[in-house]
Amino acid sequence: MLDEENKILDEETETTEVEEVDAPEEEHDLKEGIIAGLTEVDTVPLIQESFLDYAMSVIVARAIPDVRDGMKPVHRRIIYSMAETNNTPDKPFKKCARIVGEVMGKYHPHGDAAIYGALARLAQPFAMRYMLVEGHGNFGSVDGDEPAAYRYTEARMAKLALEMVRDINSNVVDFADNYDGVDQEPTVLPGRFPNLLVNGSSGIAVGMATNIPPHNLTEVIDGVIAIARDPEITVEQLMEHVKGPDFPTGGIILGRGGIRDAYEKGTGSIAIRSTCHIEERGDHGMKRIVIDEIPYGVNKATMIENIANLVHDKVIEGISDIRDESNKDGIRVVIEVKRDTIPEVLLNQLYKMTNLQVSFGIINLCLVDNAPRVCSLPLMLQQYLDFQVSVVERRTKFLLAKDEARDHIVSGLIICHDNIDDIVDIIKGSATPDEAIKKLMAKYAFSELQVNAILAMNLRRLTGIETNKLLAERSQLETNINEYKRILSARENQIEIVIKELEEIKGRFGDERRTEISNVAANIDDEDLIPQEEIVITLSRGGYVKRLAADVFKRQHRGGRGVRGASLNENDVVQLMVYSKTHTDLLFFTDLGKAYRIRGYQIPEYQRAGKGIPIINLINIEKGESVKAIISVDEYLDHRYLMFFTKKGLVKRTAISRFKSVRQNGKIAITLREGDNLLEVKEIQNKMKASAPIMEKRKYYTRAVNENEEAVYTLVDNPIEDNIDDYYLDTIVGIASSEGKMVNFAVEDVRPMGRTASGVIGISLDEGAVAIGVTVAYEGDLVLVVTDKGYGKMTHISEYRITKRGAKGVFTIKSTRKIGKIVAIRTVSDNDDLMVITNYGIVIRTHLTEVRQSSRNTQGVKILNLEGRQKVSSIAIVPYEEDEDCDDEDLENIEDVDVAEDNSASDNDE
Q: Model-level pTM?
């Protein structure tokens, strides 16, 4: 037994060894067989063909809407399935899970998530301009929240969706087999309103994409009617009806250029801006920005988060808080604005840096004759019109055939009623139904349909009443048939039917536009948003600056007590007051001889009694550096100059154009000598038009403009004798000292110097005396002098002798205990208004006609009543406004003071 087992084992071993030897040959043969069964092909055209098949499948059957009904296959199948299952507006809601299952099982062999996403979008008021599905439950939000699971939500067709499937059973569209060949589905819906433009569409296919914005139903229907009545209508004429996209979320479209491009070429880009308004917070003039509408497709929560991040990263400043107060009634996002921020400028920054303003790229790509095509507005409207004409034509043919068939039967029934006894006898005498049919057809020429209808007729139909009904029915049928034939006889008749039915839909579902179309440019500079206004800039000695509207201060007669213009800290006084405009440059010059530049609107606006903002927050001045002059500059012209005056009596003239490049960081304006400080800066011109009689020892010029548009002045001896009407003279500057003296000399005595020069001597000062004020006067102008105790006077410049620079000057007003010391000297016109501000922030505005002109040797009149320790701090000259009314509430009867000064003082130029 053991030997047999060993023998078997040896045989198996031998067999195994043989197989191991033969195995490579078998494998070789197998490989040869496989290779022999293969066909060698070029993979390039194979991949191209396969990719093309895939691409066309995506384009035609998934991502691109049809120009006729404006729907992609998934949306079309959802609406048709809901209509087929009677899920209409007059019926209860159905679970979305059931709707999704019905669509997926019968028509759309794709994932349930894709079908539910498409269904939910049809029910979202922020995505659809006119919803086609009425949802019940959570279908998502504008904050990006996802819809609830379809086992929770319910839906049914919206009323407007019924218009998408109206007449679908009247053979108006073609049907095709579904994916498994068991059921039939429409290749396109009748779409009785232009859904493609009304609700828009977006999708990404292979190598192409579509992005059609929604429009207003009323406007689009008007556009269809317009092109139906005039097929040659232009885009410009169509845009009188279809004004532009109309988004469900509202907003503002900026400009019409992008709209026109999209309507003409099929592609274009438009900017959509949020609708916002600015509210007063009610507490000390604080303001807030309120966002009422956001651009289409913008996630509100993400937008708010982005704004918060920009504020956190200090990219945007001026926002103290942001909160979302939106509710079921609409969107309301509140942005609290800081006091020193201009809300219009902040809003413009938000437009540029956040999704408060977005760009919407329009691509009117859709399927035309089952092929993708970028369409202009006229082409889309014409394609829709042609489709609707086809629908009306096919429906009419269907109804015609139906009524003709019925008319044929009714005619037979009427013959039957007229010969009822004979027909009954024939039927009774026939052995079989077939025999009866043959006899009736032979005798009365009935058709088989008529005979079958007669045989199927109930006995009660043999009454006289039924005969009358048949006669009435045939009459109505014949009327219908004639009408149908009339409609089919001409395309114009079919177009009129389309227009009539569109008008009915417009009357039932049309509404007003939600999106405004503005001509405002998409990119606006911050400055363009700020109104051009006249303003007053005040700066206190403590360094607080603010902007006020020029009309805040009502003009009062001299002697008025004034109104409060600033609420300052104790021991702080208003130092400078400058009349300017919001869009004008302001040059700030400091006691250390540096210059800084900002625009008028960059200074925060405050209420009249507001303290202001520290100037150090606006310009980069050093610690201990104080502003001594503010110059308002409209244009940086080479022939206009700035005159610098120092406390030690030095003067320098520099072209204003040298300061055009000055920024907030500052530049050297004048190099000061040791122990000296900048006193004041004045803007001047070399020569000005004369307005007074000829005076001796003055140079007069005529003025002309050369080919380079430069002014050229020619010296003349006596313009009156030469009959010259327009003549010019050198500008005169004056420097007043703390001793009450004033020296006047021509600007030409100071040659132009560079920006960093130190200057030359302007007035000779005694030991301990300093320069305290300056004027820039022209022949015929008046010099206004104001003291710290509220006295002032105007004196004609002719009373001040003109000398060379460097003299000691003559007395302009003698300082006494009653009059006080000089605090301001200005060149004025009697048509100007005077603003006076005290160290307590009280402001009075009066017309200079209230300040009587007097000679150089008088102490003037009292122009402001001062109480307690009040003193005049600063003045400003503003143009006269004729329509202003004086405020007389605080007026007091102040007698003029016109007392001759002591003439014993030296009045000689030294």
A: 0.69
